[in-house]
Amino acid sequence: MNRVLVVDDEPQIVRALVINLKARKYEVDAASDGATALRLAATRHPDVVVLDLGLPDMDGVEVIKGLRGWTRVPILVLSARQTSDEKVEALDAGADDYVTKPFGMDELLARLRAAVRRAEPVGAADGGAVVETEGFTVDLAAKKVNRGGVDVRLTPTEWHLLEVLVRNTGRLVSQKQLLQEVWGPSYGTETNYLRVYMAQLRRKLEADPSHPRHFVTEPGMGYRFER
């Protein structure tokens, strides 16, 4: 049974989410402000966080940054902010997905399920497959990345994106394929997600993120991982 932390200061939205989530056998905690959300996340250890950005005590982006300081829990933003810059800011802070208000409950629940699936560990079906570059090592079975003798902390979404690219080393992976494999079959046009997460992978793993050697962009088509 998965535990969901709902963070929103609109009581009717919280009530609707709690009813729908509990009906689907989720355990649910709720917070109406950022400070309570951070405290509940630390004490209740949710499997996924549904977060509104417009909170009374702090901006939701600050909550994302606070969570990302210590946890990889999937974060699904639920917000009335609809501009591309605002979405990118939330994704860049560490959110995994973004749903704009007003929203359809079925779509939200589908995205929540996808976020939980991305965070679930998978069996070591690759027999200990390890991919090495000059600067870092990717252990597909252990779901770990090591750079310079130090483990690199990746969010579940960052790892999933890296995994798809590494499994296709040397081959172009289209934007649509990446979106659908990492976020789910209902995705295909959210290319800003890819720009944000590729930038994060480059910052964490490339020697020179502005001139990437391993995470190569094929403009207008997709991305390719080179060893």
From TrEMBL:
<dbReference type="Pfam" id="PF00486">
    <property type="entry name" value="Trans_reg_C"/>
</dbReference>
<keyword id="KW-0963">Cytoplasm</keyword>
<feature type="domain" description="OmpR/PhoB-type">
    <location>
        <begin position="128"/>
        <end position="227"/>
    </location>
</feature>
<dbReference type="GO" id="GO:0005829">
    <property type="term" value="C:cytosol"/>
</dbReference>
<dbReference type="InterPro" id="IPR001789">
    <property type="entry name" value="Sig_transdc_resp-reg_receiver"/>
</dbReference>
<dbReference type="InterPro" id="IPR011006">
    <property type="entry name" value="CheY-like_superfamily"/>
</dbReference>
<dbReference type="InterPro" id="IPR001867">
    <property type="entry name" value="OmpR/PhoB-type_DNA-bd"/>
</dbReference>
<dbReference type="GO" id="GO:0032993">
    <property type="term" value="C:protein-DNA complex"/>
</dbReference>
<protein>
    <recommendedName>
        <fullName>Transcriptional regulatory protein KdpE</fullName>
    </recommendedName>
</protein>
<keyword id="KW-0597">Phosphoprotein</keyword>
<feature type="modified residue" description="4-aspartylphosphate">
    <location>
        <position position="52"/>
    </location>
</feature>
<dbReference type="GO" id="GO:0042802">
    <property type="term" value="F:identical protein binding"/>
</dbReference>
<dbReference type="InterPro" id="IPR039420">
    <property type="entry name" value="WalR-like"/>
</dbReference>
<dbReference type="GO" id="GO:0045893">
    <property type="term" value="P:positive regulation of DNA-templated transcription"/>
</dbReference>
<dbReference type="Pfam" id="PF00072">
    <property type="entry name" value="Response_reg"/>
</dbReference>
<comment type="function">
    <text>Member of the two-component regulatory system KdpD/KdpE involved in the regulation of the kdp operon. Upon phosphorylation by KdpD, functions as a transcription regulator by direct binding to promoter regions of target genes to positively regulate their expression.</text>
</comment>
<dbReference type="GO" id="GO:0000156">
    <property type="term" value="F:phosphorelay response regulator activity"/>
</dbReference>
<keyword id="KW-0902">Two-component regulatory system</keyword>
<keyword id="KW-0804">Transcription</keyword>
<feature type="domain" description="Response regulatory">
    <location>
        <begin position="3"/>
        <end position="116"/>
    </location>
</feature>
<keyword id="KW-0805">Transcription regulation</keyword>
<dbReference type="GO" id="GO:0000987">
    <property type="term" value="F:cis-regulatory region sequence-specific DNA binding"/>
</dbReference>
<dbReference type="InterPro" id="IPR036388">
    <property type="entry name" value="WH-like_DNA-bd_sf"/>
</dbReference>
<feature type="DNA-binding region" description="OmpR/PhoB-type">
    <location>
        <begin position="128"/>
        <end position="227"/>
    </location>
</feature>
<keyword id="KW-0238">DNA-binding</keyword>
